[in-house]
């Protein structure tokens, strides 16, 4: 089951108003559409509890019971509805298999494909169930310990409650960013960025882009950091759609940003070359061009890159 979940989630990663919508699927207080839940959270100024679950033949009974306890009744969702919007995503193997176009290797069912992409975006473990909390803007806040060891829904309500302080602390930071300007806002963004797990930093793309816009003169000394972070976030989204060309363009354009340092330019041009190499591109001329630009940036890896450029030239000469 674990292996199946990973394979199917990976295949999905490669495929690709005001008020509550009347056609939104809500069962026992659980939304099935993540984007719709975010819209409601923004409207009601709440955070989102994302619950990713599955049912399968060899599932321990106590796990299935725990999931049933909060999914088959509205008691859990009602108990936390004053501050959270709940969304549940069913990632059961039979659901994924039924939606998979085995011939082409992607999900034919758009809803299932969307769920798998969201699970990938939030780096959801294949050890289901998983419960986490995200902000109304979709930023990761924290995981909720869901050990399936409570026989009453209040146990899981309490588990969420233990994270209330973390959620408030995070949301207060986001509020501070929205009310701040210039360097103060950039430093506030930096606090959020540094406190976010590395794998989930691409979710902060909008904040990174804001930091770049607010600090074009590099008053804070953080411009290069956020130009790179913003490029990584945008490139990540393009790569989820197998759009390598636009991902490379993101890095190349970012390398031309005024006031970033030599190491930043080096990183960004190198990223262009590495994407071509990682995707087995035969465009050696472009690989050489990007590594040349990276070496000419004068960063700390200048000598290493110069050697790489010479190796590529030798390889090209042999090919001729």
The H-and-E topology, N to C, reads as: HEEHEHHEHEEHEEHHHHHHHHH
DSSP summary: helix tally: 15
Give the strand order of the largest sheet, numbering strands 1, 2, ... along the chain.
1-2-4-3-7-8
Query: How many DSSP-defined strands?
Result: 8
- Give the biggest beta sheet: 6 strands, mixed
Could you tell me the strand content as a percent range?
A: 5-15%
Query: Structural class per helix/strand content?
Result: alpha/beta
Query: Whole-number average pLDDT?
Result: 90
Coarse shape? globular
Walkthrough of the structure:
This protein is α/β, with parallel strands linked by helices and 320 residues long. The chain contains 15 helices and 8 strands. A 6-stranded mixed beta sheet has the order 1-2-4-3-7-8. The protein has a two-stranded antiparallel sheet with strand order 5-6. Strand 7 and strand 8 form a beta hairpin. It is globular, with a radius of gyration of 23 Å. The N terminus is likely disordered.
What would a concise description of this structure say?
By secondary structure, the protein is of the alpha/beta class.
């Amino acid at each position: 089951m674990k292996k199946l979940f990973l394979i199917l989630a990976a295949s999905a990663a490669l495929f690709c108003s005001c008020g509550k919508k009347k056609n939104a699927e809500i069962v026992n207080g659980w939304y099935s559409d993540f984007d719709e839940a975010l819209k409601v959270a923004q409207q009601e100024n709440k955070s989102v509890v994302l619950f990713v679950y599955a049912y399968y033949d060899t599932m321990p009974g106590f796990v299935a019971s725990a999931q049933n306890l909060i999914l088959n009744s509205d008691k859990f969702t009602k108990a936390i509805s004053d501050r959270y919007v709940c969304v549940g995503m069913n990632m059961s193997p039979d659901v994924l298999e039924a939606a998979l176009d085995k011939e082409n290797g992607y999900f034919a069912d758009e809803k299932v494909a969307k769920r798998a992409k969201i699970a990938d975006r939030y780096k959801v473990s294949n050890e289901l169930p998983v419960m986490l909390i995200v902000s109304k803007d979709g930023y990761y806040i924290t995981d909720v310990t869901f050990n399936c060891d409570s026989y009453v829904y209040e146990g899981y309500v309490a588990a969420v409650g233990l994270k209330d302080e973390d959620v408030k602390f995070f949301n207060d930071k986001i509020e501070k960013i929205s009310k701040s300007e210039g360097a103060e806002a950039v430093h506030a963004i930096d606090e959020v960025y540094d406190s976010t797990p590395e794998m989930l930093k691409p979710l902060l793309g909008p904040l990174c882009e804001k930091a770049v816009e607010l600090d074009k003169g590099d008053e804070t000394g953080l411009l290069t950091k956020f130009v790179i972070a913003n490029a990584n976030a945008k490139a990540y989204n393009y790569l989820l759609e197998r759009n390598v060309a636009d991902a490379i363009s993101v890095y190349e354009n970012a390398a031309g940003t005024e006031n970033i340092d030599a190491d930043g330019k080096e990183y960004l041009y190198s990223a262009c070359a590495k994407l071509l190499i990682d995707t087995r591109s035969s465009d050696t001329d472009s690989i050489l061009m990007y590594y040349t630009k990276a070496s000419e940036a004068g960063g700390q890896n200048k000598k290493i890159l110069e050697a790489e450029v010479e190796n590529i030239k030798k390889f090209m000469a042999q090919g001729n």
